[in-house]
Structures are given as C-alpha cells and as structure tokens.
Design brief:
mainly alpha; globular
C-alpha cells in the first residue's frame, strides 16, 4: 500500500510540473539555460527547482502550494 501511495504522489508531482509549464508566464522552459542532462541532474539533485515566481498572476494559491510542496527536497513534510 505504501508503494502505491508513493507512486500516486510521484504522479501528482509530475502533473504539477506540467501545470507549472502551462502557467509559466515567461514562456521559457524550466532550466532552459542548462546545456546538458548531466548538469540538469546535478542541479535537481542539489535541490534547485524552477522559479515559482514566473507563474501567471491569477494562479490559485492552492496550486502554488501543491507545486512548492511537491518540489520540496524534504519529503518528510508529507
């Protein structure tokens, strides 16, 4: 049951990343300045995430909170 819950949370977080891309007001992709996949993996492993501040102004706070929670490196808060 715990593995199923972890998979569901992972799916939700993946979908929230897509929502971030849709609501991204700058229209640049996340980490658009990264040259290769290895550099991207290192940044994500270090806890770097795309900016939440580029979302369109009227993004509901609940959506912002879910994105921030999913991207939080400290998953013990769940």
């Amino acid at each position: 049951m715990l593995n199923l819950l972890k998979r569901v949370v992972k799916q939700i977080c993946t979908h929230l990343f897509l929502i971030w891309e849709i609501l991204n007001d700058s229209k640049l992709g996340p980490f658009s300045n990264i040259q290769n996949e290895m550099a991207l993996a290192v940044k994500v492993h270090r806890g770097e995430r795309p900016s939440i501040h580029v979302l369109v102004r009227d993004t509901p706070q609940d959506i912002i909170d879910m994105i921030v929670n999913c991207w939080d490196k400290d998953r013990s808060k769940d």
